Amino acid sequence: MFSLLGDVLYIKIYPNKVSVRNVNKKTEVSKSAFAAFTSQRLLVGEFTVAEKLLKELITEVAHRGLFRVPHRAVIQPQAMIENGLCQVEERLFLELALGSGAFKAKVHVGADLHDDAVLALFN
User: How far apart are the C-alpha atoms of 30 and 4, rounded to whole Å?
Assistant: First the structure.
């Protein structure tokens, strides 16, 4: 069955590691970066390295059919958030999600979310 709404992905960003869960299909993959993307000051200091890893993981868990339907993504930094995110950091995470092919993205800072809570963010 073809849906106009793509998969909902829950992306967690760790120092030099990314985890992607397809909430619809209940599948998850994670992988360490081939080169460091975390710097001393930023969780994602090397944007292109993190983006490449994220795109690679998304192709493993997202819709695989004749047509590629853009996904929705919740992206959550898992480190270096002690005092919250500044506007630049929040924009970085949004751009990371949108650059991966998401047509809609949200940044979540806080406790890890269950699948239902991730879906509720888009309803």
Answer: 27
**CA of residue 88 relative to chain centroid, distance:** 17
Dihedral angle, C-alpha 65, 66, 70, 74, nearest 10 °: 10
Mean pLDDT of 61-67: 69
What is the Cα–Cα distance from 61 to 51, expressed in whole angstroms? 16
Q: What DSSP string describes 97-121?
A: HHHTTEEEEEE--SS---HHHHHHT
- Say which DSSP state 61 is in: H
What's the predicted TM-score (pTM) here?
0.92
**23 contacts 75 by C-beta, under 8 angstroms:** no
Is residue 37 over pLDDT 70? yes
Rounded CA separation 87/66 (Å): 38
